[in-house]
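Bug #2210: token dump truncated for tRNA (guanine-N(1)-)-methyltransferase?
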Amino acid sequence: MELNNYSQTKKKYDITLMWFYVITIFPEMFYAITNYGVTGKAIHKKIINIQLFNPRDFTDNKYKSVDDRPYGGGPGMLMSVKPLYSAIQHAKDLSKTAVVIYLSPQGRRLNQKKILEIVKKKKIIFVCGRYEGIDQRIIDNQVDEEWSIGDYILTGGELAAMVAIDSISRFIPGVIKKKQSVQEDSFFNDLLDYPHYTRPQVIKNMKVPEILLSGNHDKIRLWRLKKSLEKTWTKRPDLLKNKILKKEEEIILNEFKNKINKKKNKNNY
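Reproduced locally. Full output below:
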């Protein structure tokens, strides 16, 4: 299934930089990212391409059922092997060099580092599971990687696939107009984003920090770096464990830690 006919015509001078192939029994769910936001615009500009394949179209039964009982018993159903295998193989035949990713709560936790690695690939096949999951033989023989977007359970892999597509697309040239916007996002440099403010300057006695109104770009940069480091140390200290800090960052962070320690010591008396 191809949405909006954007995938149906490949011109001689195709500028498409990333191809996403999605195996899903609910292709209509992807209307949200193919028609709205930066991904919708990127598809319209043919910077990215999303093709959807429904295992129901690869069934050999009149009911087009895609679920089956698990061997050994147990609750729930599994996705049928044959239609799922055929859908994946069809996507592979079209994409040739694509990496196959299965969205699963048992997969590797998706993070910014992984996004930056995978964005170098030109073609990705996402397999969206349903029911209790998919046959292990498909995972062992057809899947290259398993991804999870968190330690919680969803009813299917579609939402996880959309999250991954959106995140990957942000790093494809031309999708986001200002490259700086992407580089200053949370997690880009293993740091959380700094606080943001817009007009009006004062609302219900809450003011915008004066430094942001000063026009002094160097001071604003330092303030933002300071707030970013402070927020990361306070909310996600795990991000700093393996980060190699620049001298400037190290000084700022040590000053903040000393300030916190002094405050704690003062409260102990």
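Output looks complete on our side. The longest strand covers residues 99-109. Marking as cannot-reproduce; reopen if the truncation happens again.
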